[in-house]
Amino acid sequence: MLKRRLAESLEVSALGLGCMGMSEFYGSRDDAESMRVLHRAVDLGIDFFDTADMYGPLHNEELLGRFLRERRPEAVIATKFGIVRKPGAYARNIDNSPDYARRCCEASLRRLGVERIDLFYVHRVDRSRPIEEVMAVLGDLVREGKIGHVGLCEVSAATLRRACAVHPVAALQTEYSLWAREVETEILPACRELGVGFVAYSPLGRGFLTGTIDSRAAFADGDFRAHLPRFTDDSMAVNRSIVVAVKAVARRMNRTPAQTALAWLLAKGHDIVPIPGTKRVRYLEENAAAASTPLPAEELEALDEAVRGLAVAGARYTDEGMKGVNA
Ligand SMILES: NC(=O)c1ccc[n+]([C@@H]2O[C@H](COP(=O)([O-])OP(=O)(O)OC[C@H]3O[C@@H](n4cnc5c(N)ncnc54)[C@H](OP(=O)(O)O)[C@@H]3O)[C@@H](O)[C@H]2O)c1
After folding, report:
1. Most Cβ neighbours (<10 Å): which of 190, 197, 275, 292?
2. CA of 130 to the centre of ligand 1 (A)
3. Residue span of the structural domain in which 140 resides
């Protein structure tokens, strides 16, 4: 698989692998199949693995730890801290205090079984603290060799600028896909100006853009999407027109909708690394193929044209969750 450069010293496969769903959020888990997905990803040339302490919580890093025992040299590992969850609930607090950042780093190192975390993100910024404070401690962790690079999730362009003044930020991770394009206005241009790579999470619209989700009835008990305004039946009825546009291009180009959505995103810039998530080998193989089959310019334009002006119904998160974005 082709590589992309997030920062001068951070080169990763053009597509990463989102590991969150292997633990929770999108239905049941199957560790044995997840392990097959992780190994197959490496075999397909994917080396960029995305996890967080709060996925599970803790289960996802522990799963990755078992995988890394065998494949550490072939993997670039990204994890996150800063969201404190109660087990069994999606309710959370944000903690960016220097002491908590350091303790989380040590705990993630232990769970992952590595000597250094390649990319350590602040999962959500605590608006009550200056970003400079957490960047200072992350800079110390880099100098101590415990983390390779610093990343931030869901921050505003202004926060990114202030953060970069303290310590280089290798990557900003935020949702970006055909139905989540807010980053195009200010955040992507700021990343480009500051030399910060962009990691696109939920590039398949949490599965919606693949055309496989017709109604909330498809969600198992506890599925996170059932809480999201964008996934009410009314919202999905509006948002389906985007899937229709994706499917039209997919059909013409003999691709699947997932491959079409990923190819569209990959074409938005060489500084963008989408991290589609799956816990199934079948989906992984399908998604990985998108990296080697770019869409022709006229099809990209047709897709942009088809979705331009289409309404997206429902916010990305609940009101509470939206407090954590563009922070
Ligand atoms: N920084 C943050 O705040 C944040 C937030 C959300 C996510 N993330 C990261 O981003 C990663 C990716 O985002 P995501 O998992 O939320 O959303 P996504 O990648 O947009 O979509 C994942 C969903 O799509 C399904 N899927 C994947 N490939 C498919 C295919 N080819 N055909 C049909 N369905 C397919 C998956 O099904 P299965 O589950 O059945 O495989 C899963 O339900 C996460 O794993 C996580 O690491 C970060």
Report:
1. 197
2. 31
3. 3-210+268-292
